[in-house]
Specification:
Layout lengths: L11 H10 L9 H4 L12 E5 L5 E5 L8 E4 L4 E3 L12 E4 L2 E4 L10 E6 L39 E3 L7 E3 L2 E6 L5 E10 L5 E10 L13 E4 L7 E4 L4 E3 L12 E4 L2 E4 L10 E4 L11 E2 L8 E4 L8 E4 L7 E4 L4 E4 L3 E5 L5 E9 L4 E11 L3 E7 L7 E4 L4 E2 L14 E4 L2 E4 L10 E4 L13 E2 L17 H8 L8 E2 L6 E4 L8 E4 L7 E4 L4 E4 L4 E4 L5 E10 L2 E8 L8
């Protein structure tokens, strides 16, 4: 059957069901479905396997239950029964009606990856690509409340015809799936109905393809030849692939770059992305390192070139460039037994180790994705000086040594002087800072940065425009719903009245953060309010924070840094 062929034959019951559920098929379970559990027989084998020519395997999945996921392992070509899918490595894909989830991201720990290829012939495809892979992730600001499943990126795996047919037809896509075991398969959907025309029976076929050249799977190592002087080799650590990058400063296709003994990350003076590096404490092994903190990562800066003083400088990462030992007698370079954490260009985290170096620019390295682990930190900030603001950087968890021109310095996120607070924004700085008051005063209860209102522009391909109010959106586009949320607008710094009697003057500060304390006019005592805040940093990242104590200008602050590219804590 052709991918774009619509199935016209439907039973009356099947058509009625489709009319009820519409595009999203979000129907409520009937009495029979309510009594089913995930292992209940839905009227026959839940997955029917057929072997076809050319190493192609076909499966028709009875995923018609509204509450039951049906799990499939591509290697064994068998259905998997699991009571703990979030931590079970025995399955690759799961099906429920039109929904398809992968053992990855928020759906599982199996590190499954999916890439969608358009205009690719399934029959002739033999090699997996090196890039374009995604995993299941949390729901973004779209029109539904489902997770962003990999098979729904950048759009659903199927086409919906709408009235009067209400049919689901597989899109003309070929997918590449990297399984839990690290093998690669091409896969396509061929149907959504069984022989009787009943919906909820997706049919797929898959076959093995060649692993992409240089791509990392699990703990496998990759060889990097960076021996050519003056040439940088760009590496995607998630895929383990060497990239050709024409504009490294503005590209997010690479995470680290290597030239001889020098290493860059895609950050700071080397790139405009979110990368960075952190050295793991000595003694902690590769297998023990399963999670990454969000703080302590160094972005790239200008560094002295190896050699005598005055040799010049280069853009590099100060942490990663401690990877080697140099023998001044033999002039030999050797890799230290050092484990690093690397934050990628897109804000993900990997553990990274240089296994060997041949002495002339050729490396053997390994890298593996690990979980982001934002933790609560308690910091005492001494802001007791009545003349000078103390500047603090959340990413480095340190008081910042600011330049003379603090307004243009992106090395600080908040600044405090006694009770006054600034963010790196507006009248105080050129950063992307700002603040908003959280609805909850309990820091542990703040799970994510709240979303604001937005427009649902139906006549512009369902695009969200965050710049317009509801009335403006209705006037221009004639359509608005609260389903399309835009990021909350943070309050930036402005000139504020200095605390004291009228006429005391103004200072540059943040009006939201100015509410952190209570002042008793009788006792002249300052005490923190029971208030929590979300702060946007100079680089546009997010922190939740709460002042818990005041001691004559020394503030105790509890805070959690989400890390670049993340809005959940």
């Amino acid at each position: 059957m052709k991918h774009n062929e619509k199935i016209k034959h439907r039973t009356l019951a099947g058509l009625s069901l489709m009319v009820m559920i519409g595009c999203a098929e979000d129907i409520k379970p009937n009495d029979m479905n309510m009594n089913m559990n995930m292992n209940t027989d839905l009227g026959g084998p839940e997955i029917t396997i057929t072997e076809k020519a050319g190493d192609v395997t076909e499966a028709q999945i009875n995923a018609s239950g509204n509450d039951a996921w049906v799990y499939l392992d591509l290697e064994s070509k068998k259905q998997v029964t699991t009571m703990t899918p979030d931590s079970d490595s025995g399955w690759d894909l799961a099906f429920k009606r039109v929904k398809v989830k992968t053992n990855s991201g928020i759906s599982g720990t199996g590190d499954v990856k999916v890439a969608r290829l358009s205009e690719t012939d399934f029959g002739t495809l033999t090699d997996a690509p090196t890039s374009g892979y995604v995993q299941d992730s949390e729901d973004s600001d779209d029109a539904d409340t489902d997770p962003d499943y990999a098979f729904y990126t950048p759009s659903t795996w199927y086409d919906y015809s709408g009235p009067p047919d209400h049919t689901i037809t597989p899109g003309a896509y070929t997918y590449i799936v990297k399984t839990v075991e690290g093998n690669f398969y091409k896969l396509r959907f061929t149907d959504y109905y069984d022989a009787a025309g009943t919906s909820g029976y997706p049919k797929i076929e898959w076959a093995p393809v060649t692993k992409p050249s240089g791509m990392l799977t699990e703990d496998r190592a990759i060889l990097i030849n960076a021996s050519e002087r003056g040439t940088w080799i760009y590496v995607d650590l998630i895929d383990g692939a060497i990239r050709t990058v024409m504009d490294p400063k503005n590209s997010s296709d690479w995470d680290i770059a290597i030239s001889r003994t020098q290493i860059q990350t895609n950050s700071g003076t080397s790139g405009n992305a979110m990368a960075g590096a952190l050295a793991v404490e000595q003694g902690k092994t590769w297998d023990e390192t399963e999670k990454s903190p969000t703080i302590g990562f160094a972005r790239d800066s200008m560094m002295p070139l190896p050699g005598p003083p005055g040799s010049g400088e280069y853009s590099g990462n100060a942490v990663l460039n401690t990877w080697y030992n140099y023998d001044p007698i033999t002039h030999e370079v050797s890799a230290k037994d050092q484990l690093f954490l690397v934050r990628t260009a897109e804000g993900d985290y990997v553990k990274f180790k240089i296994l060997s170096y041949d002495g002339d620019g050729t490396y053997t390295v390994k890298a593996k994705s690990i979980e982001r682990d934002p933790k609560t930190h308690t910091t005492i900030i001494d802001a007791s000086d009545r003349e000078v603001f103390t500047h603090f950087n959340f990413e480095s968890n340190s008081v910042s040594e600011t330049s003379m021109d603090t307004k243009s310095d992106l090395g600080w996120d908040i600044a405090i002087q006694r009770t006054k607070m600034r963010t790196n924004s507006g009248t105080s700085g050129t950063g992307k800072g700002g603040a908003l008051e959280s609805e909850s005063a309990d820091l542990n209860a703040i799970a994510t940065v709240p979303a604001g209102d937005g427009c649902y522009l139906a006549s512009m391909n369902h695009t969200c425009d965050c710049g317009y109010s509801k009335s403006e959106c209705e006037q221009m586009m004639g359509a608005w719903t609260p389903q399309c949320n835009c990021p909350t607008k943070f309050v930036e710094d402005a000139e504020l009245p200095i605390p004291g009697p009228p006429g005391s003057g103004t200072y540059s500060g943040n009006a939201v953060l100015a509410e952190w304390y209570n002042y008793n006019h009788m006792t002249h005592q300052v005490s923190p309010n029971e208030t929590a805040f979300i702060v946007r940093t100079a680089h546009g990242d997010f922190v939740k924070m709460k002042v818990t104590n005041w001691d004559d200008g020394k503030l105790t602050v509890d805070w959690v840094y989400a890390g670049p590219g993340h809005s959940n804590f």
